[in-house]
Amino acid sequence: MKIANMQGFIQKYKRIIYSINMVIKSNFKGKLGRKFKVNLIEQISITIFKLKYNLPDRILEDIFRVDHVTISRIINRISLYLSKFNLSPTDKSEFYIVDSTTIRRGKGKNSDTYSGYKHHHGVKFQVIINENLSILGDKAYVPIKRNELEYKKYKIKVKSLNKKLSSKRIKIEHLFAKMKNFRILQRLNYYKINKIEIFFNAIANIYNLSKI
After folding, report:
1. Which domain holds residue 171?
2. Among 30, 60, 83, which residue terminates a domain?
3. 18 contact partners, CB below 8 Å, separation of at least 6
4. For 86, which of 22, 27, 69, 129 is 20 to 30 Å away at the CA?
């Protein structure tokens, strides 16, 4: 491993790497076929490193001394395992927050991916969290418009409630910011939509693991 901040990366994510290992190692026991040349701990490290820095696989080949084709397969395999975890804690929260964030797309553009509000193409993800900022899952919702009759009728009361809500919703904006520290969710994204979904869910579960 050549890059200067590799040791810092390993120390920062060491607990999460070993936690993931404990969760998914049973999936590798009794696996048919040849054994993996790269052990599970290193597979997890490679995957998190890819999600964090989004470097090309050929650069990761030099860093980890593993063939880039093997690295691509490792990232796909471990990300898929991560995306399927059910790490949401038992929830007894007093409130929940639902919000969405958009991951910009660099290819596969069409009328369905274009946002007139954002003025770019992207994939939108909706997330629900509890008051402790644990990600509980995706949820569809219908927003309440400000010009509805009830808003006009109880304007002062609704404004007061909206102020309280805003103080809570800022928390999910902080969560999105933390998730987008993983560069694979930043800038233009050239992966297929189903792969972006896998990466997004994998990072959500990495985030949840960091809070356990």
Report:
1. 96-192
2. 83
3. 41
4. 69
Q: What is the number of structural domains in the chain?
A: 2
One-letter amino acid at 154 equals Y
Residue 33, phi-psi category: left (phi > 0), alpha (psi -120 to 50), beta (remainder):
left
Query: pLDDT 10s digit of each residue in the chain, 212 long?
Result: 445 467 778 788 999 999 999 888 887 776 656 677 899 999 999 999 999 999 999 999 999 999 999 999 999 999 999 998 876 555 566 667 777 787 877 666 666 666 655 556 777 787 887 777 777 665 433 344 455 555 566 666 556 656 666 666 677 788 888 898 999 988 667 888 889 889 999 999 999 888 87
Q: Helix %, strand %, coil % for the chain, to 5?
A: 55, 15, 35
Single pTM value for the model:
0.74
The answer to the question of residue 205 being in a domain is no
CA dihedral 212, 174, 184, 142 (to 10 degrees): 100
Q: Is residue 204 part of a domain?
A: no
Decide: 128 and 137 in contact? Cβ < 8 Å: yes
First to last CA, the chain: 29
